[in-house]
Hints:
There is one protein chain. This protein is α/β, with parallel strands linked by helices. It has one domain: Vaccinia Virus protein VP39 (Rossmann fold), CATH 3.40.50. The protein has twelve helices and nine strands. The strands form two sheets. The protein has a seven-stranded mixed beta sheet with strand order 3-2-1-4-5-9-6, with helices on both faces. β4, α5 and β5 (119-124) form a beta-alpha-beta unit. It starts with a helix and ends with a strand.
Amino acid sequence: MAQPVYDLIGDRYHKTRREDPAIAAAILAALGDADSVVNVGAGTGSYEPVDRPVLAVEPSTIMLAQRLPGTAPAVRAAAEALPVRDGSFGAAMGVLTVHHWSDRARGLAEMRRVARGPIVLFARDPLPVPVWWLHHYFPASKRLEASWEVRFDELAGLLGGRPLETIEVPIPADCADGFNGAYWRRPRAFLDPAITRQMSALALIPAADRERGMRTLRADLDSGEWDRRWGHLLALDELDLGYRVLIARP
């Protein structure tokens, strides 16, 4: 197994990447009445249902070490080789994980192999979001994310060809889960290395690009330029940045 991304950047993941209620509600609705769930790329355990059996599958030892007492049992393995029998679970889920897999087709095929019911993914639509100001300051993040992107119709093809059901998930202004979209109304958060280190799209770009973006963002916040361009966002309680819960039925 290649060294997982979050063995490199996830040492304090549990500090900033916590379960957000709005996202959790959408994922639980998508899982429906599945009697058991395998969580692929499970990280520290956010979004795992607590009312039914769950097995967490996570390749990073750093992430596994941060799982709290009482979370679901976990095994160290990659999405591309799930260590469970065919049809072992009522559903399979994955949260902001597919873009990190080395072989998406194989990982999704594994999810389908082990799940009798729906496959539920939380992901961002790669179609451009015109209000997403982050890429103005960190163009290297935009390029990195573009290299990861997979269109939802491609995901549907990899999951059997049927159209995916989608649930729109606007991101609340106070989103508790510190992925980069969570801070759309809190731009100063991107000046804190403790926060950006847990965002792969920022942690994995060259340090010079990240530091340059922080300097420019800080200058625009201090001068009022950020408010002039994007201050209208401060009046919103939530924003659609393209995040969706996807459901692939068997």
